[in-house]
Amino acid sequence: MKPPRLTVIIPREEIDRAVRQLAAIMSEQFSGKEPHFLVVMNGAFIFAADFLRAFQPECTISFIDVKSYSGINKGELQINTTFPDVRNRHVIVVEDIVDSGETLAKLLSVLHELNTASVTSIALLNKQVPHVADADMYALEVPNVFVVGYGLDMDGRYRNLPDICQLELSL
Ligand code: IMP
Ligand code: MG
Hints:
The protein is α/β, with parallel strands linked by helices.
C-alpha cells in the first residue's frame, strides 16, 4: 500500500483567524459566567489549547475521553470518563469535528442528566453532511472528506500537522 495523500485544505493562518474570532464571540457571551469547558480528547487538544488561550473570562477546564474511529472507519462509540461535578455550571463542550453528530448527541444526553446551568457546544470543524446533533458554533467548515492535522488523526498519526489536510488512501 502506498502512503496516503495529504492535501492542505485549510492553511494554519486561516485556522488561527477562525479560532480567535470564535474565542472573541464566546468571551463576550460568557463574560462573568465562569463557564466550565469540557474538552473532548484526543482530537480537540490543539484547538482547545489555542481557543482557550484566546478566551478571556475566568473559566475552569477538564478533559473527557471519547473515541469512535478505527482507521477511517467508524467504530463503536466509547465514553471512557467520569464526568466532573458540573451542577449549576455553564458547560461548554469543545469538539474537534462534527461528522454524523452521534458523539455530540451522546455527550449532550449525558450532560442533560447532570443539572448544569446550561450546555453549549463548539467545534473546530463542521463536516458538510447531515448531523443527528449540531454544535452551537463552529470555527470552520469542511467538505465531506476525511481530514487530519491540527489535532485530528488517522490511527494516532498526523495530529501534529499545523494545517488541516484532506487524507486520501491510495491502494
Ligand atoms: P461523529 O460522531 O460522526 O460526529 O464523529 C465525531 C468524531 O469522529 C470526531 O470527534 C472525530 O474524533 C472523529 N472524526 C470524524 N470525522 C473525522 C475526520 O474527517 N478526521 C478525523 N477524525 C474524524
Ligand atoms: Mg479521532
